[in-house]
Design goal:
2 domains, flat
């Protein structure tokens, strides 16, 4: 989770601008989206891409995203446990 200080309201770093009015953003130009993703990756944010081309409704979104997050959490937990085991 990012933490900002009061100066960030003046300097406007990209991550601050992305969430200052909410966590969902619509990008109208692919080049701007690509630049933003590149900036986030360059600043060590984890960017998760989801192929939503086959989604027909919001229900598809709500079925897919929990599975994605559970998979990522399980992977992280497995990595953590194996790291702990190898350190002992």
């Amino acid at each position: 989770m990012a933490i900002w200080d009061l100066a960030d309201e003046l300097t406007r770093p990209m991550d601050f601008l992305l969430i200052q009015n909410g966590f969902i953003k619509l990008f109208h130009q692919r080049a701007i989206l690509d630049g933003t993703v590149s900036w986030l990756r360059g600043h060590r944010y984890k960017v998760v891409q989801v192929d939503a081309a086959a989604w027909q409704s919001q229900a598809d979104l709500h079925q897919t995203l929990p599975k994605l997050w559970i998979s990522r959490i399980t992977t992280a937990r497995t990595w953590l446990l194996s790291t702990i085991a190898s350190a002992t």
